[in-house]
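Lesson 9: reading folded outputs for more than one chain in a single document. The general rule is that every protein is listed as its sequence immediately followed by its structure tokens, and records are never interleaved. Here is the first one.
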Amino acid sequence: MLDVLKIFILGIVEGITEWLPVSSTGHLILVGDLLKPGLSDAFMEMFNVVIQLGAIMAVVVLYFHKLNPFSPTKTNKQKMLTWQMWIKVVIASVPAAVIGIPFNDILDEIFYKPLPVAIMLILYGVLFIIIETRNAGRKPSVRRISDLSLGMLVWIGVFQMLALIPGTSRSGATIVGALMIGISREVAAEFTFFLAIPAMFGASLLKLIKFGLKFTGQELGLLLFGCVVSFVVSVFAIKFLMGYIKKHDFKVFGYYRVVLGGLIVLVTLIQMVFV
């Protein structure tokens, strides 16, 4: 029963932090270290990735019409624009796939620790503050996904690739990259959601293959439960974020990242000295 409660909490953490640009993996690592579920390290490493499937299903459900090129209610032009959007998602996904597939395990081994997570939280938090301060009063040059150029897609894809380092935040990195080149907050956030679909499905598949599908009945039940919780919470988190950025910038997330990263560094140093 205690493990069920801990998985419930982790599902909530994933649902909130996957879409807010504060690093879901970083939060899952940190909260997982605090809760210490009575499950194997291999299972928890896989769980922290596969639970994202619940979060991504929230995007599929909320944006199903916009994502569906076969919708009978769309005109031929709208269907064509939907196919073009998917092509853009694929193009922007290439950099992360090229690096992530062969080097994912190596990156996890090096950076899947509290201190690297803290450093990336702080670094991208500072970037959010700097970029939003620079953009204050400026009008974005891109207000529709259909206006994203090939160069912009590659640029965003590179930033998504950088998010392979835990603590960076996939949504945070891609949004930072998009804001830097004049893309509106709404388009940056929405395109980030769509980019998450292939990225999360691919990452989850790799982790499941590595784990070997050797689930006990308890582990499978906990994984499914975590995904359901993540899905429900993600629906509210996505709606909140899209409503929030219509009236506010991303600075608050930058400050949050800096403060959280600083606290993690402090705790880590204290543990190194006294433990």
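And here is the second record, again sequence then tokens.
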Amino acid sequence: MLSYWKRKREKRRLKRTFKEYGYEVKQFQVEGLGEVEYAQWLHPFEGPKEVTDSQIRFYRSYASEGSMIIDIGAHTGDTTVPMGLSVGKQGIVLGLEPNQYVYKILEKNASLNPDTTNIIPLPYAATSEDGEFVFNYSDASFCNGGYLSQIKNQRHRHFYELKVQGKDFDKYLREHYAEWLPKLELLKVDAEGYDKEILENMAGIISEYRPNIMAECYKKLSMEERQALYDSIAKHDYTVYMNDTHYLTEGFVDSAKRIKLTRDTMNVKKHFEIIAVPN
């Protein structure tokens, strides 16, 4: 019992104390690729990450070799690296992470595995206009957070503020990556409740290039906000699914073991990942 309270006090202390953490490069064996490296962030609230065959196979089911993937809210690169491995050296992955302390780890991960990936890290938030924005985090060393001032539920307990740079991402992509956009096959957004606004800003690109979409239904969203998130995808003639093969629901499960969603079932689970495919 004493050790429990000791650990709790230590966690509280760490949460309130700023420290910039480094990384440790780990190696993983991946079938068909051999040894793959990944920089594990040493922040105490960051869980251990790994790179696996199943992750790469998953992303290959939505993006082919040589194609383009955009990873908005890349964090340290735990999704960006397997995405890069899935599309290969001839493809491209753009990884966006505006948190300067996390970005350094993402940048390191982008530099690893140079023979098998082409990852471009970008130190920006995807916003509706260029400028400086304030994100909220749950600890003083900025591990978990996002643009939480934009959601209705402000009981998120993310009290630590960090200024970040935002880019009108639709405009940015058209100016800097126009030649790649016809090869855009997967757009992933994980923005702690700000996903709908990002998808609305990128509506033109979604409508024109019709990539597969991954997004997050954040646990603090109201039903109204969940339905607005659904609409931001479905309006482009997409079928929207929950990516949770272990969750039972009255909806149907298709051959890819995805649970189909409607506007009225967006509260089927508190927090879940969305997969959407163009019809």
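What the second record shows: The first strand starts at residue 23 and ends at 30.
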